Structures are given as C-alpha cells and as structure tokens.
Structure to design on (86 residues):
C-alpha cells in the first residue's frame, strides 16, 4: 500500500505523489508515517520533511509554520514556507 502525499506552501504545490514513508519534524518531535497509520494532525516545526517514494527515491524539503494531517492513507503537509532541497 502507498501513501498519497501532497506538500504545499502558501504560494504553490511543492511536491505530490505516492510514497512509502513520510518523516517530518513537529513541535513534539519527529513523526514517521507509513500506510495504515492512525489518523493524525500535527503542528510542523521548522525542519526537514523526508519523503521516500514507492520506487525508493528520496525527496527532501525544508518546511516551517504549518501542519501535517494523515487520514485514510492520504498525507497533507501545509506549510507557510516550503522548498525542495536540491
């Protein structure tokens, strides 16, 4: 099973696609999410979002000031500021 992931900033969609793992920094510490995870809503802290695609590829982004939600194998990350790391 795969996660449907969307990472957006206040200005644009940064990345969307399918992933096997999403790791993000929240105000309470890092959270890792895989398919089948319980629904969650978390406040983002400034830091790195790591997305592992279903093909094993890695996507890295900096994000801050927003939230992460997970429900029904859909992960939505909404950040005030976000950018991919080259």
């Amino acid at each position: 099973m795969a996660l449907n992931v969307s990472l957006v900033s206040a200005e644009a969609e940064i990345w969307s696609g399918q992933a096997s793992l999403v790791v993000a920094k929240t105000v309470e510490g890092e959270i890792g999410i895989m398919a089948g995870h319980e629904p969650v809503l978390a406040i983002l802290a400034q830091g790195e979002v790591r997305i592992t695609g279903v093909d094993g590829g890695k996507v890295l982004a900096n994000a801050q000031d927003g939230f992460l939600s997970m429900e029904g194998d859909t992960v939505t990350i909404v950040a005030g500021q976000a950018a991919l790391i080259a």
The domain at 3-84 is CATH 2.60.15.10 (ATP Synthase; domain 1). The chain has a mean pLDDT of 96. The chain is about 0% helix and 75% strand.
